[in-house]
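Suppose you are handed a protein chain with no further information: no name, no annotation, nothing but its sequence. What can you learn? This example shows the usual starting point.
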Amino acid sequence: MVVTNHRVDVPLDWNEPSGATISVHAREVVAAEHADDAKWPAIVWFQGGPGHEVAFPESRGSWLAQLLTRYRVLLLDQRGTGLSTPLDARSLPFSDPVALGNYLRHFRQDSIVRDAERLRATLYGERTDWYVFGQSFGGFCSLTYLSSIPEHVRGVIITGGFAPVLHETEEICTRLFNHVATRNAEYYERFPGDAARVRRIVDHLQTGKEVDGHGRPLSARRFLMLGGKLGLQHGAAELHGIIERADNDLEQLGVLSGVVHAHVAGMMSPATNPIYTVLHEAAYSNGPATLWAAERARLADPRYSADAQPAPYFTGEAVFPWMMEELPELQPLREVADVLAEMDGWPALYDIPRLRANAVPVVGTLYWDDEYVERAMALETVALLGNCRPWITNEYEHGGYRVDPARVADRLFSMLDDLTARSTSP
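A reasonable first move is to predict its three-dimensional structure. Written in structure tokens, the prediction is:
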């Protein structure tokens, strides 16, 4: 591979192009055998998230290897992540939570796609077209791209990221929690002995005596966030292994081992970019304030109560306000998180009439049992999106493109080529 760093300055607020600026970084990766081919087409990579950076491409493997057979790949560090004017809870640009909220509100999809357009024009020329790839939240970005500035997009690949464009945060969170409840029921049916184990673990955690190696207490509600693993390939079996270990720890040690604590900490590392914490729900909003919708959905459903019998349900991927109290690393974000949760008047992320009239070829995977993107809402998006061909499958979970990259890539590339040919035929 040949890896080249690129950086451009962009407006913090694209509606005020002469105002404050930030820098956006991307790594262009091209197969060595195509490095000198100026006509080799480019594709921009929109990472999952929000707020997750793209790792340095240390090897030519997995999904990147598949893309390199067809494209030069622009690995975009979305604003605020990686090398793009990074954010960290220990070094925030404003101390005032309102000023910080007004700054961070510009770090959603609508700004990210404008940054990508600036990179496209700068690196490849104003008239050059390219392709778009979006995984998970990256798919949300892709749909925002098609809603706002699709003129130079030749084709789009989305994996697990057909955003619920017809719904607002409140309904999205409620329906996601209902869906995650189904995954919990399946889990307890598959591992019936775990109900008693989880009950014992939660009862122990509610005593308030369990602390990690740093002396920090572990709450039951944070432990139950391990349900995020139910969205991973073989994640139910992995969760079962953790529950077995934790229950055995209590029986033989009287405390949870460091291994179990590490699993809990890894579900949403507080070292990740603050964007994930403070904009997770805002990434769904087309206007209304989010008001901690996931926490309200959790509290409204008794199945997620720590006192639920025979055992509480695990929560899925979500951000809750109490995280900023329990995790010292996130405490600097508490006030701004509240400011953003109460912020109203978010710009619309999607233009529904334009998506219906879309002519850009779009292909992608819609995972039938996806824990993170509820399928009924994803199916609605697929149905309304013009010139879209989905691969609807229950063979994979949310990260199927990582689990079986060659097969998934072959199928999606074939679908994209066929749809492109049909779109351009007279």
